[in-house]
Amino acid sequence: MTGVETVHREGGINRYETTTRIAQYAVRMFWASNETVGIATGREFADALGGGAAIGSQGGVLLMTEPTYLVPHTKTYLEAAAADVVDVTIFGGVGAVTDAVKAAIEAALASG
Questions:
Q1: Bridge partner list, 101
Q2: pLDDT > 70 in the chain, percent
Q3: pLDDT at 8
Q4: Architecture of the domain defined by 15-111
Q5: Quick check: helix, strand or coil at residue 20?
């Protein structure tokens, strides 16, 4: 690629770890902050695609989870970032991310 001097790769063992690593990297590079967090299902791309653009326009990060339970990587990220989180937006209806996951997100933020 013309003009590119460095390429940096972020990856994890699955899509959930990868999204947390990308979020951590974006915060470290001051491209985003943990004040605004978006959550989308990792099962379907549409909510994450639209949600990523929406949350990114607000300077926030997007994390993903399973529809019926909060995945460990996302839970750990939220617990670590809890002091900085001001607003959480869940993209998709309860069919995409259940109320049980919403409660687990709230618990993770309260315990952090």
A1: none
A2: 99
A3: 84
A4: 3-Layer(aba) Sandwich (3.40)
A5: helix
